[in-house]
Design brief:
This protein is an alpha+beta fold. Helices cover 51% and strands 18% of the residues. Helix 1 runs antiparallel to helix 2 (61-74), helix 6 runs parallel beside helix 11 (420-430) and helix 9 packs antiparallel against helix 11.
Length: 480
């Protein structure tokens, strides 16, 4: 069941209001209770002092009759006030004693007494009147019942409770309307988001008129849409490049097969056709394997089976595989620097071989290639430099993109399908590093970095495959 934010906010506002109103009502009730009982005690004390003076001025029996008459006059008809005088001499007594259970002490000389069968208390005040003349020492007890006060408090509490409930209901209804009004921009934002469609990828949420809190959300959402749009564009470009790369060998295979089937061929001719087809199949396999490898890298997989090795030794080991291509291209190689790092040796070998293949393809005979290993703040940079024409900044920005070639016409598409440097980038990211390209003073440098400790490269296994090097040519690839 989906929960409405508006209902939740209304319920929370109502709950908070109920708590606030209850605390306020309780405070008012306690304040009124204290005030009413203070006034009741003051009234009781006033009556008690008057009665005390009357009793104190009756030293004999003749005047005690006057005291009894005055105390009867002070007792109202509704019997709210009670007077009782107790002493050892029966002639100097008045009224009936106040009996019941003592329920509390409400101050000096004050007690709360609950008479039997009554639901209200009586507050009593006791005085000792000294002896005078014939009258011995007597005890004066003056009491007043709390019927009116407690009844008033009960009515006040009931009215206060009803007001609290009604106020809470009103707050809940008003908060419902207020939250709907306050959440109107969010509703409008949701409607705009629901209108987004793949047919209009440039559509974005309007964030200018939104409140500050929703403006940040809409901006972040638009940023996500922008990233998705760019990813979609890269995917479209990637699919187009893949289709272009696969179309050529497939067309060659179809054409050669059709020609072979037009007339009878000798065994030698058929062998030549099959050999040519095998080369195209090999090229298809290389492209497909490279695409699968890059796809696994895009999913965030990291290199495993790490070992701490000398990167210079890994470069020199890879140069043994490249001995024949280097000789054919009349190139020399210098290796400088060294550092140790935790890497997957197969992946690093693949990246290094791709850097050398790229340098060989763009170097003039008789020149010298330079491979360097340099530690850099928790990372190690591996770079291959070759003399060449300066690279345009736009070219440097896209040089590691998939299927990117310097020759726009794809004149070298048979030898190079444009994934070598993108694989270098994938290997670097698998080891917590990055790629770089520099062009200065007639020297172009391509390289990548790896984390010394392997970075976070301990998650999912990535098989580097087997590095294959043909002695007769340059193409190098890894079979996942």
């Amino acid at each position: 069941m989906k929960r409405s934010i508006s209902l939740r906010l209304s319920a929370m506002f109502a709950a908070v209001s109920l708590i606030v109103f209850t605390l306020t009502g309780a405070g008012l009730f306690l304040l009124m209770q204290r005030q009413l009982f203070n006034e009741l005690r003051e009234t009781l004390d006033t009556r008690a002092r008057i009665a005390n003076l009357i009793v104190a001025h009756a030293p004999n029996v003749e005047k005690w009759a006057f005291v009894q008459e005055k105390l009867r006059d002070l007792s109202p008809a509704d019997s709210r006030m009670h007077y009782y005088v107790e002493g050892p001499d029966p002639r100097f007594r008045f009224g009936s004693p106040i009996v019941g259970k003592v329920t509390g002490d409400v101050g000096p000389n004050h007690l709360r007494v609950r008479p039997p069968g009554s639901s209200y208390d009586i507050i009593t005040s006791t005085y000792i009147v000294p002896a005078s003349g014939e009258r011995p020492e007597v005890k004066l007890v003056v009491g007043t019942d709390c019927v009116r006060t407690e009844g008033m408090l009960r009515r006040f509490g009931m009215v206060l409770g009803v007001l609290i409930v009604l106020s809470t209901i009103v707050v809940a209804l008003l908060s419902r309307a207020v939250t709907r009004f306050g959440l109107a921009p969010l509703t409008r934002l949701s409607r705009e988001a629901a209108q987004l469609s793949p047919s209009n990828r440039r559509q974005r949420l309007h964030s200018d008129a939104l409140p500050e809190e929703l403006h940040e959300l809409a901006t972040s959402f638009n940023g996500a849409l922008e990233r998705l749009d760019k990813a979609y564009e890269r995917l479209e470009s990637f699919n187009a490049d893949v289709a272009h790369e696969l179309r050529t060998p497939v067309s060659i295979l179809i054409g050669q097969t059709q020609v072979a089937l037009t007339r009878d061929r000798s065994v030698e001719q058929l062998q030549q056709t099959l050999q040519s087809n095998l080369e195209e199949f090999e090229r298809l396999r290389v492209i497909v394997n490279d695409m699968l490898f890059l796809s696994r890298s895009d999913r965030g997989e990291r290199a495993t089976d790490l070992a701490e090795v000398s990167l210079r030794a890994e470069i020199e080991r890879m140069l043994d595989f490249l001995e024949m291509p280097l000789e054919e291209a009349q190139l020399r190689v210098q290796v400088q620097g060294d550092a140790r790092a935790w890497v997957n040796t197969s992946l690093i070998g693949r990246a290094v071989s791709n850097l050398f293949v790229n340098a060989i393809q763009h170097s003039q005979p008789g020149t010298t290639l330079c491979a360097t290993v340099a530690p850099q703040d928790g990372h190690v940079e591996i770079a291959v430099s070759n003399p060449g024409e300066p690279l345009d900044p736009v070219v440097r920005e896209h040089i590691f993109d998939r299927f990117y070639r310097l020759q726009e016409a794809r004149s070298n598409s048979h030898e190079n399908h444009g994934l070598g440097l993108s694989i270098v980038k994938a290997v670097a990211e698998m080891h917590g590093g990055s790629v770089f390209v520099r062009s200065a003073d007639g020297v172009n440098t391509f390289g990548f970095s790896v984390a010394v400790d392997g970075g976070d490269a301990q998650q999912s296994p990535v098989d580097a495959g087997i590095v294959r090097q043909g002695r007769a040519g340059l193409p190098l690839h890894v079979s996942p």
